[in-house]
Design brief:
The chain is mostly helical and about 160 residues long. The chain contains 7 helices and 2 strands, in the order H-H-H-E-H-H-H-E-H. The longest helix is centred in the N-terminal third of the chain and has 26 residues.
Length: about 160
């Protein structure tokens, strides 16, 4: 929206500048989204759907620096895929082969190593864990036991209550 707003108020007239500001804005939103959700609870919206969580190697939540490093490293191999694909279909194989090799190396790393670490996770010191589905029956039983104990009347004080007579 930034380039459109600047164009409408008359600040930008050059389409090249609009495109550059648009790309920078989009990259900023991309980074902000992934860094925010990685540090907030270790899950983006997609990771919540797949029940995955990203943590450090020790299992601690990610800090902003580590989340930013992980996001930039992941974006680098995705950029290698898109740029390499463009170069391949344009017939520039000398440029395409090394870029596509970077992308496939990232996936080969994940297949050859532990399943919770892709190449960008290894370099950033993070891992992705599977979050088990909560047991709804156990949670419902605990809730009903707790509500039953709260609503039950307390027993009357009698001789067993500890009063000496």
């Amino acid at each position: 929206m930034t380039p459109i707003a600047l164009y409408m108020v008359g600040v930008l007239k050059d389409p090249g500048s609009m495109q550059l500001i648009g790309h920078v804005s989009l990259a900023g939103m991309f980074l902000a989204y992934f860094v925010h959700y990685s540090t907030k609870n270790g899950q983006t919206l997609g990771m919540q759907a797949w029940r995955l969580r990203v943590v450090t190697i020790t299992g601690a939540p990610l800090g902003k620096g580590r989340a930013l490093a992980r996001t930039l490293l992941a974006a680098a191999w995705l950029a290698a895929l898109t740029t390499g694909g463009e170069q391949w279909f344009a017939g520039h194989y000398v440029l395409a082969v090394p870029l596509l090799a970077v992308f496939f190396a990232a996936y080969a790393w994940m297949l050859a190593n532990r399943p919770e670490q892709a190449l960008h996770d290894t370099l950033a010191g993070t891992k992705v864990l599977f979050v088990p589905r909560p047991n709804r029956r156990a949670a419902a039983a605990t809730d009903s036991e707790q509500s039953a104990s709260e609503s039950a009347p307390s027993p009357p004080a009698g001789p067993e209550s500890g009063k000496a007579g």
